[in-house]
Amino acid sequence: MKFGSRQTILGATGILMVCLVGVAMLSGQAAQEPKPQMAEELFKNVQILKGIPVDEFMDTMGMISAALGMNCLDCHTGDSDQSWERFAADTALKRTSRRMLLMVNALNKDNFAGTRSVTCWTCHRGDLRPKVVPNLAVQYSAPVEDPNEIDILPAVSGGPSADQVFDRYIQALGGTQRLANLKSFSAKGTYVGFDTHHTKIPVEIFAKAPNQRSMIVHGAFADRVTTYDGRAGWVAAIEKPLPLLPLTGGNLDGVKIEAMLAFPAQVKQAFSQWRVGASAIDDHEVRILQGTNPRQPPINLYFDESGLLVRMLRFADTPIGRVPTQIDYSDYREVSGVKMPFRWISTWTDGQATIELTEVQANVPIDAARLARPAPARKPQ
Ligand code: HEC
Ligand code: HEC
User: Fold this and answer.
1) Which single residue of 53, 63, 243, 300 has CA 20 to 30 Å from 182?
2) Residue closest by Cα to atom 2 of ligand 1
3) What is the CA radius of gyration of the chain?
4) Local confidence band at 153 (pLDDT 50, 70, 90 cut-offs)
5) Ligand nearest to the CA of 59
């Protein structure tokens, strides 16, 4: 049952995925920005995954790692954490992966009209060696519904409309008027994740309506800055392959939607179509709104019984499939009459981090430089 419905979702989304890469780049909001660097222009030994920007290339690595349940260094040489150049060296697993990349391309081309219906995940499902024999324990255990994989149908009879779910959300946050009065905020808090080896470090967030947002994670040696300036987005961090990594495609859409969710009244207008679904997260009922735009992966918003947003699920498209990012929001508190989540957990194929706010100041002036293209990250001397 579970297996069947998952297949359907993959099949259905596959159809939507035709030529997303090309179109996403054409429609890229970063019109005034210089053309982002392609993976093969930066890296030395890219033979197959060519013609995609660096951030998208890194998403393909996240996709492969997730699909095989591996870490970066399992496939690359053990010293690759020393420098980016070392990732160029070939290993047996890398060579096999290249063959697999070609195999998957051919499978999709020959059988599924070139849509990305088969991905590394389809067979591997988190294992290096795909299972061959049906698993009786899985077949006879109670199916577990994953709210991230629910099929959202065009109309749920008897349920609320998308407009009603949005209206409840706005009411739960404090109402249209109070939301309209919130024009900017700055926040301080803590960040802890796999990338900090589970040590809490300071984080600052600056946001300005309608859709500018910057997050600065103050690492022990350097800051990581993620900014959406209303048009373009970047990550400036020493651990990235570029000191200023421009965000493209689904990553750009992702920082944009996160900026919009800082001032949620406008989110409804950001997607041309909304569908309503229902499921449960940790045994709590949730309403799901799925927003779609032409040539973009969908976004799922999950609302709890009180009407508040408890999860956002978004995707970035890559040539080898769709990569998910999930953000779980909690601990809503009032800031000048508007409810804001003070805690959220971001989960992506490459890590997980928890952000907790300790202090939020509403409607304070924010230095324009905070919300503009960040300076490239510099390695500490
Ligand atoms: C299952 C194997 C596998 C895993 C796991 C994996 N990679 Fe790769 N990686 C590859 C393959 C295959 C290529 C070459 C792709 C091509 O030729 O188009 C590659 C290429 C790269 C390159 C380009 C190197 C160069 O100079 O040519 C970088 C950088 C890289 N990977 C980083 C990562 C990171 C970071 C991770 C962890 C998030 C990771 N990889 C996980 C298989 C893997
Ligand atoms: C159609 C099913 C299928 C798909 C799709 C698939 N693989 Fe595989 N893969 C296999 C099988 C089967 C094996 C062989 C496992 C064994 O030797 O027992 C394998 C083996 C591998 C291995 C070598 C494992 C080892 O122990 O040496 C790597 C690495 C790998 N796959 C990477 C990938 C990557 C990366 C993708 C996506 C681009 C992918 N595979 C997509 C079926 C698949």
Assistant:
1) 300
2) 75
3) 21
4) low
5) 1
